[in-house]
């Protein structure tokens, strides 16, 4: 069959790779100049590796993408790390990525720390997500973890990420966040660009065509037997835009922490991710790389700001994280916005999520809205791409 795939992100490339292996004639249309979607990266002349425009890593149980990496002969490119995840509470950063750290967390009385631990352990061990679609994350957490723990830890993070949707997010989303997290993380030598380049090469070697900086037109429809759409379709489901400001600095902004969750909602950002506290700075010109992340609704003022304007807004709060940091230590500045990157998982989300097979003959849909109960991630993009390829191949 002749198959057109719209979108050269991880889902589209994985589907193209799998279908090309089945000897289908595959053409990928990507409107940007680069492939990879939300995982695409960039490289400066004095850097040895590419850097993702938005922070990325893999969990050790991300079996779909780890399997793809193995098939592409890239297993030797994997780096395993054990970076620190912390939470900013009352102006102090506390490690909060293990049971011991939870028991030491000063924001909660001992009974609430124990209740929270019971909840997190139960979510980790429970294999079933479907019952959690019927209640909100807030209801679940407060009923088991307790109101004080919800208000101290989770509520500010939920508000920071989902804004006005925070109280409507299904507990199945919370289940998925806890279920999949691992203390150890993988990264790919050279960045995720290594995987994207290998996929591109493998697709072309198998007779596939990749058209970058090219938009699919309706007039092309008759030239293909099947059409797979992998771009966002924000029509029936609420979405938020993911935005990151990336600072390259001479000195580190965070001392030892890789990922810092910010519970203080007076801060203008939700997460601080110090990439070079996970990966050696030597690959990036011996400078430190730090992301400042947000999820923003349509029309938010940050979406219309320049990177310089955003830095000016963030700077007083960055200084709170590191009072010794001086503005002249910021050597470079980047901004990236992933529009419609974050679907909001409300109650009974599975009933509303788009299905792979559409009502239009020969048209298939596979994007981040379809990976429930899981949150966004390259592992699920690979999983979805493989599922789409199998379905299209069978229906051929």
Helix content: 25-40%
Specify the CATH class of the domain at 2-77 and 188-235 and 353-395. Answer: Alpha Beta
User: Per the principal axes of the C-alpha atoms, what is the gross shape?
Assistant: globular
CATH fold label of the domain at 2-77 and 188-235 and 353-395: FAD/NAD(P)-binding domain
Reported for the largest beta sheet, the result is: 7 strands, mixed
Fourth-level CATH superfamily of the domain at 2-77 and 188-235 and 353-395: FAD/NAD(P)-binding domain
Which band does the percent of strand residues land in?
15-25%
Distance between the termini: 7 Å
Q: Supply the number of helical segments.
A: 11
Mean pLDDT: 95
What is the correct CATH architecture of the domain at 2-77 and 188-235 and 353-395? 3-Layer(bba) Sandwich
Q: Uncertain segments of ≥5 residues (pLDDT<50)?
A: none
Which class do the helix and strand fractions yield? alpha/beta
Write down how many β-strands occur, each being a DSSP E stretch of 2 or more residues: 17
Strand order of the largest sheet: 8-7-13-14-15-12-16
**Rounded to an integer, what's the Rg over CA atoms?**
21 Å
The sequence of SSEs as H and E is EHEEEEHEEEHHHHHEHEEEEEEHEHEH
């Amino acid at each position: 069959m002749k198959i057109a795939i719209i979108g050269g992100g991880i889902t589209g490339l994985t589907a193209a790779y799998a279908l090309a292996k089945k000897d289908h004639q595959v053409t990928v249309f990507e409107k940007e100049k680069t492939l990879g979607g939300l995982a695409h990266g960039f490289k400066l002349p004095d850097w040895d590796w590419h850097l993702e425009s938005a922070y990325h890593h893999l969990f050790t149980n991300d079996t779909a993408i780890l399997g793809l990496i193995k098939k592409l002969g890239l297993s030797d490119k994997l780096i395993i790390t054990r970076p620190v995840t912390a939470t900013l509470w009352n102006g102090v950063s506390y490690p909060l990525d293990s049971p011991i750290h939870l028991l030491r967390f000063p924001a909660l009385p001992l009974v609430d720390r124990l209740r929270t631990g019971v909840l997190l352990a139960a979510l980790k061990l429970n294999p079933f997500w479907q019952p959690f679609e019927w209640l909100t994350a807030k209801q679940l957490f407060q009923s088991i973890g307790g109101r004080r723990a919800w208000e101290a830890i989770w509520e500010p993070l939920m508000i920071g990420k989902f804004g006005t949707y925070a109280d409507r997010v299904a507990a199945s989303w919370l289940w998925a966040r806890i279920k999949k997290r691992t203390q150890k993380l993988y990264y790919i030598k050279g960045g995720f660009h290594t995987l994207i380049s290998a996929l591109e090469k493998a697709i072309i070697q198998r007779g596939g065509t990749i058209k970058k900086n090219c938009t699919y037109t309706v007039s092309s429809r008759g030239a293909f037997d099947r059409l797979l759409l992998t771009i966002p379709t924000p029509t029936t489901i609420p979405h938020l835009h993911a935005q990151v400001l990336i600072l390259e600095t001479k000195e580190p902004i965070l001392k030892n922490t890789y990922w810092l969750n910010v519970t203080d909602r007076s801060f203008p950002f939700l997460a601080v991710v110090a990439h070079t506290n996970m990966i050696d700075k030597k690959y990036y010109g011996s400078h430190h790389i730090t992301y400042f992340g947000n999820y923003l609704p349509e029309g938010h003022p940050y979406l219309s700001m320049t990177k310089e304007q955003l830095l000016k807004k963030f700077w007083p709060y960055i200084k709170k994280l590191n009072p010794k940091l001086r503005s002249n230590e910021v050597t470079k500045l980047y901004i990236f916005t992933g529009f419609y990157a974050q679907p909001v998982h409300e109650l009974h989300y599975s009933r509303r999520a788009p299905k792979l097979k559409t009502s239009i003959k020969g048209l298939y849909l596979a994007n981040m809205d379809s990976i429930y109960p899981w949150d966004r991630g390259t592992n699920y993009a690979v999983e979805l791409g493989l599922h789409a390829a199998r379905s299209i191949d069978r229906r051929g």
